[in-house]
Known about the structure:
Blueprint: E1 12-16, H1 21-32, E2 36-41, H2 44-56, E3 60-65, H3 71-84, E4 90-93, H4 108-135, E5 139-144, H5 148-151, H6 159-179, E6 184-191, H7 207-215, H8 226-237, E7 248-251
Helix pairs in contact: 1-2, 1-8, 3-4, 4-6
Amino acid sequence: xxxxxxxxxxxxxxxxxxxxxxxxxxxxxxxxxxxxxxxxxxxxxxxxxxxxxxxxxxxxxxxxxxxxxxxxxxxxxxxxxxxxxxxxxxxxxxxxxxxxxxxxxxxxxxxxxxxxxxxxxxxxxxxxxxxxxxxxxxxxxxxxxxxxxxxxxxxxxxxxxxxxxxxxxxxxxxxxxxxxxxxxxxxxxxxxxxxxxxxxxxxxxxxxxxxxxxxxxxxxxxxxxxxxxxxxxxxxxxxxxxxxxxxxxxxxxxxxxx
Length: 258
């Protein structure tokens, strides 16, 4: 691995859900700051395109198919980082799915689908990454949660999503305690209303109303951007955050102060 300048120079970072939205923004920013990045996703064409774009801009990026609910996929992704790029120093568990049903309308199938991706996925990722991070002398894990971990949704929507994001908080704090002796920091990141393909705001006949409602979730009266979330993730990955572990960083434009 060739070292370049930047806040993540000499580090290797694995990012899930990196084919679009926040994950793609995180991958581009980490690469621009000197990291070799491994992009994991199930959207292969889009993920390969993001990796090619990073390489064209002078960055070091590799794409790997990664279903985060699959242990074998995790093993391949970590091996790519450790064996081909020289180690693993950062993991961003960004991938997630959003279902908006309230509790009464959430079937067991929906519940288990959301848990498999949003809760089991980060668990499997951390477990797979720990040996490589220990071998590298430490690292940083950023588990992307949501302000819905604490606040729920208006009218009780997204019951399963909120539950899994709440679980990420406890998982991150427990892991922070467990992994501190190995120099591995673990933090959760909590975006609010962010303009991403997953949120898909502003489309359809009710799009303008939905967009206005989401913008109103912030005292700043706008949606956040993927890049604004990426800057927060970057800080947690850098050595600038060397005394930050077990924390929950909120990037919500002030929504949670309501």
